[in-house]
């Protein structure tokens, strides 16, 4: 993976909410993700991460817990001008790290960018594996009956098994 110097990943702050909304609406308009209203981002701000360069937010992603062991990574977006610089991978790795620390063992995504998630160790599964997601979010989605997103999962290794390697 290539990487760009000077990019850092951190937990989002309330003051990042409008920048997050700006980046995600770019892709929501193109149909890559569901639009998240500013009030929804603000309500969930502690679950967002941002990638920052020179004080500006250039990428974001969020985590969403479903059970004690199952969580989703969602709302992943990197500004066009920083794509293929490793920012998306940095964001997903940070999200996975936090999920692992919380004891999550399985993380899933619903995505139109399967090649990116394949490169991050995810594999395709049937969406029906996640009835919790369907109850919580999909029922309110305009794409419900014609969902084109691909469900992918990754089993997270336990922190102790990684440190002993
Ligand atoms: C998907 C997305 C977040 C990837 O971010 P990124 O910063 O460009 O990804 P990275 O640079 O970390 O890519 C890591 C690897 O993923 C793979 N990859 C990333 N984008 C890819 C693409 N468009 N096509 C094929 N492979 C891709 C490559 O293997 C890449 O490694 P390489 O550049 O060394 O070949 C970004 O393209 C994006 O914001 N897309 C629009 C929104 C979206 O689809 N979000 C996902 C919703 S869940």
UniProtKB/TrEMBL annotation:
<keyword id="KW-0808">Transferase</keyword>
<dbReference type="GO" id="GO:0006526">
    <property type="term" value="P:L-arginine biosynthetic process"/>
</dbReference>
<keyword id="KW-0012">Acyltransferase</keyword>
<dbReference type="InterPro" id="IPR010167">
    <property type="entry name" value="NH2A_AcTrfase"/>
</dbReference>
<dbReference type="GO" id="GO:0004042">
    <property type="term" value="F:L-glutamate N-acetyltransferase activity"/>
</dbReference>
<protein>
    <submittedName>
        <fullName>GCN5-related N-acetyltransferase</fullName>
    </submittedName>
</protein>
<dbReference type="GO" id="GO:0005737">
    <property type="term" value="C:cytoplasm"/>
</dbReference>
<dbReference type="InterPro" id="IPR000182">
    <property type="entry name" value="GNAT_dom"/>
</dbReference>
<feature type="domain" description="N-acetyltransferase">
    <location>
        <begin position="7"/>
        <end position="157"/>
    </location>
</feature>
<dbReference type="Pfam" id="PF00583">
    <property type="entry name" value="Acetyltransf_1"/>
</dbReference>
<dbReference type="InterPro" id="IPR016181">
    <property type="entry name" value="Acyl_CoA_acyltransferase"/>
</dbReference>
């Amino acid at each position: 993976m290539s990487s760009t110097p000077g990019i850092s990943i951190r937990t989002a702050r309330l003051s990042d909410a409008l920048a997050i909304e700006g980046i995600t609406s770019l892709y929501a308009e193109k149909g890559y993700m569901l639009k998240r209203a500013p009030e929804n981002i603000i309500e969930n701000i502690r679950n967002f991460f941002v990638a920052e360069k020179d004080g500006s937010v250039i990428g974001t992603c969020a985590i969403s817990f479903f059970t004690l062991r199952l969580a989703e990574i969602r709302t992943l977006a990197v500004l066009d001008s920083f794509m293929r610089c490793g920012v998306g991978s940095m964001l997903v790795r940070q999200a996975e790290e936090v999920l692992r620390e919380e004891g999550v063992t399985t993380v899933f995504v619903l995505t139109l960018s399967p090649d990116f998630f394949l490169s991050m160790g995810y594999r395709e599964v049937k969406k029906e594996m996640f009835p919790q997601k369907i109850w919580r979010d999909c029922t309110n989605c305009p794409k419900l009956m014609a969902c084109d997103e691909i469900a992918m999962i990754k089993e997270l290794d336990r922190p102790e098994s990684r440190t002993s390697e």
